[in-house]
């Protein structure tokens, strides 16, 4: 980017800002990617924090003292919910005549509307180019997401809006694109003729970790599946775009979302299960809660490439192990080698592991040394060596450069809410939530969901 710009961070004292944004901004600074950045303005409301105190927080966040980096920063104290308090920020910004403004909303979603409205109003008198970055969760349901989009549209053009889904900044997720579209051997088999089903999982061994206020209102389906896992699904399933640009990539992703079979309210139990880990109420000091800490959903994409191939998406807390993965399970080989065996062949698999580490595995069948016949399962893997770029760094660079490919467009966000809305509605009226033991793989209902189809949940590391 050749133009000068400034960054304004709302929620500059929050967890995201301290643990992700400042370290990432510092990393970009050290790589000389912020040479055109004239100023970074952080905002916060805590009464005991002034600029001096803020710089101490910043130092702790980037784990070093760097005066020249610190000199880029200003700190403004104000309550984002109070209209009259935006004036100070407005005055500060009026000193920057040619800079593009990048506004980063690292605040709770309850503040998004007020910030957008106030910013939008005072920016009317500014000729500067602008971008607005909006964190997840974008909306609480379809209706609120549509409402937020309508508000944004009043003040910002779609090409100025960056809806973040940090999973899209992850190296392995982007490598799905690389593997699929740069290798002829994979493209030929990436369809219903060869693939039996696909599993996309985000499993955690930890609980809510201090985010109860947010999590108990939201639950696993909204927190992980509506956004991250459905986004991954769209990349796994999309057609190759005609060229590599943000419009074409996002056009292909939305086609996938539009092809997902609608789940009728009365059919929800056939397609989705939820659960709450045993002890959630005690851990979180709650007298009652129907919030799911586990959710699994089966989706079908009704198009030529995927018709009949189930996509199983699941996520949960306090499970046996952390694993974020995408597992492509191929159909069983028919004929001879399925009958004459040295050992049981399994389905061939391509697995993308996103966390805890980045790797791609390929499992297939091979004659064992000294064996008589094909085939025993073997697997080979490719792990990333070298610097692993933090997802937020990739996304921050894209924001600066104005590349929206890895950000969610208005129609995508609304469509993904539409997909999960019947499930949310059904669960809202159902008081019975299955309980699963901590340290397990989730509720038995989730096992049944996939077992009914003659399949089982897969894990990259066995
Ligand atoms: N943390 C993560 O790793 C993560 C990951 C993905 C997405 N996100 C999203 O990022 C956003 C921020 O998350 P977070 O974890 O950083 O939350 P957080 O720790 O609660 O930080 C939010 C910040 O916003 C400030 N704030 C809230 N209301 C305000 C108001 N009226 N006026 C001024 N400041 C106000 C808070 O100020 P006080 O300090 O005074 O309360 C706090 O510093 C959320 O939308 C979240 O869903 C976070």
Give structural notes.
The longest helix has 26 residues, at 212-237. The radius of gyration is 24 Å and the shape is globular. It starts with a strand and ends in an 11-residue tail after the last helix. It has two domains: 5-135, Rossmann fold; 168-451, 2-Layer Sandwich (Dihydrodipicolinate Reductase, domain 2), CATH 3.30.360.10. The mean pLDDT is 93. The strands form two sheets. A nine-stranded mixed sheet has the order 14-13-12-11-7-10-9-8-15, with helices on both faces. The protein has a six-stranded parallel sheet with strand order 3-2-1-4-5-6. With 462 residues, the chain is α/β, with parallel strands linked by helices. The protein has helices at 15-30, 51-62, 67-70, 87-93, 112-123, 142-155, 171-182, 184-187, 212-237, 246-258, 268-271, 280-283, 391-401, 410-428, 444-451, and strands at residues 5-10, 37-44, 73-77, 100-105, 130-134, 161-163, 195-203, 272-277, 294-300, 310-316, 323-330, 349-355, 359-366, 376-383, 435-436. It has 15 helices and 15 strands. Helix content is 36%, strand content 21%.
């Amino acid at each position: 980017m050749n133009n000068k710009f400034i960054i304004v961070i709302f929620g500059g004292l929050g967890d995201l800002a301290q643990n992700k944004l400042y370290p990432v901004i510092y990393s970009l600074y050290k790589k000389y990617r912020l040479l055109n950045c004239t100023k970074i303005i952080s905002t916060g409301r805590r009464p005991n924090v002034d600029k001096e105190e803020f710089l101490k927080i910043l130092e702790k966040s980037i784990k070093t003292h760097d005066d020249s980096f610190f000199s880029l920063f200003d700190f403004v104290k104000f309550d984002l919910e109070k209209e009259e308090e935006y004036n100070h920020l407005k005055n500060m910004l009026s000193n920057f005549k040619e800079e593009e403004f990048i506004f980063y909303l690292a605040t709770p979603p309850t503040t998004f509307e007020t910030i957008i409205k106030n910013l939008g109003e005072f920016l009317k008198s500014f000729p500067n180019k602008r971008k607005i970055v909006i964190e997840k969760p974008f909306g609480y349901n379809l209706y609120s997401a549509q409402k937020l989009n309508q508000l944004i549209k009043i003040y910002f053009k779609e090409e100025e809006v960056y809806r973040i889904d940090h999973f899209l900044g992850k190296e392995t997720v982007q490598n799905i694109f690389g593997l699929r579209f740069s290798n002829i051997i994979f493209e030929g088999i990436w369809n219903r003729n060869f693939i039996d089903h696909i599993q996309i999982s985000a499993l955690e061994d930890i609980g809510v970790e201090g985010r109860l206020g947010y999590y108990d209102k939201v639950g696993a389906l909204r927190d992980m599946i509506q956004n991250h896992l459905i986004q991954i699904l769209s990349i796994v399933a999309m057609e190759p775009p005609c060229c590599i640009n943000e419009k074409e990539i996002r056009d292909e992703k939305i086609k996938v979302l539009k092809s997902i079979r609608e789940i009728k309210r009365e059919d929800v139990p056939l397609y989705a299960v939820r659960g709450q880990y045993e002890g959630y109420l005690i851990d979180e000091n709650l007298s009652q809660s129907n919030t799911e800490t586990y959710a699994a959903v089966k989706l079908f994409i009704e198009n030529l490439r995927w018709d009949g191939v189930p996509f199983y998406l699941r996520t949960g807390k306090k499970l046996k192990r952390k694993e974020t993965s995408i597992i492509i399970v191929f159909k069983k080989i028919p004929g001879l080698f399925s009958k004459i065996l040295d050992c049981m062949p399994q389905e061939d698999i391509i697995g993308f592991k996103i966390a805890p580490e980045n790797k791609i595995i390929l499992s297939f069948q091979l004659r064992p040394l000294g064996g008589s016949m094909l085939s025993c399962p073997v697997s080979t893997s490719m792990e990333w060596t070298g610097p692993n770029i933090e997802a937020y760094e990739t996304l921050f660079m894209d924001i600066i450069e104005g590349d929206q490919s890895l950000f969610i467009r208005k129609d995508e966000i609304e469509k993904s809410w539409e997909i999960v809305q019947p499930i949310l509605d059904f669960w809202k009226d159902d008081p019975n939530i299955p309980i699963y033991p901590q340290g397990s793989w989730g509720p038995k209902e989730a096992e049944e969901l996939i077992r009914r189809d003659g399949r089982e949940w897969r894990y990259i590391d066995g």
